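Pasting as-is:
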Amino acid sequence: MNLQLQGIILFVQDVDKLKEFYVGLLQLEILEEQPSQWLLLKAGAATIGLHKIGAEYLEPGQAPFKFDNNTKIQFETVEDINAIRKILLENNISIQEVKTFDNYPYWLCDGEDPEGNVFQLMQRK
């Protein structure tokens, strides 16, 4: 098989809130949009789709949605990772310290979008 990742779809509670994060802060380009229901974003060679989760999967009166998952979305940047981290912190985004590993060519920084989806910023040293 010859498979290539085209995109990732995240099922989310609040498409508009995540649009503020992915478009407003991370500055991803919008490819398609159905307001408050669907948003397709250009993320390098792949896409990220934000799909509103069906009401049948949510508990009425439940606290704001925070997803717990085992997936991490990586974004590589040529910009200063520390400057990006500072902007995200100023916008109340949960993000860890910048780190690296011995003999590893990248600086790394993990964070969570407003619904708890984990992302990582990476910048080549």
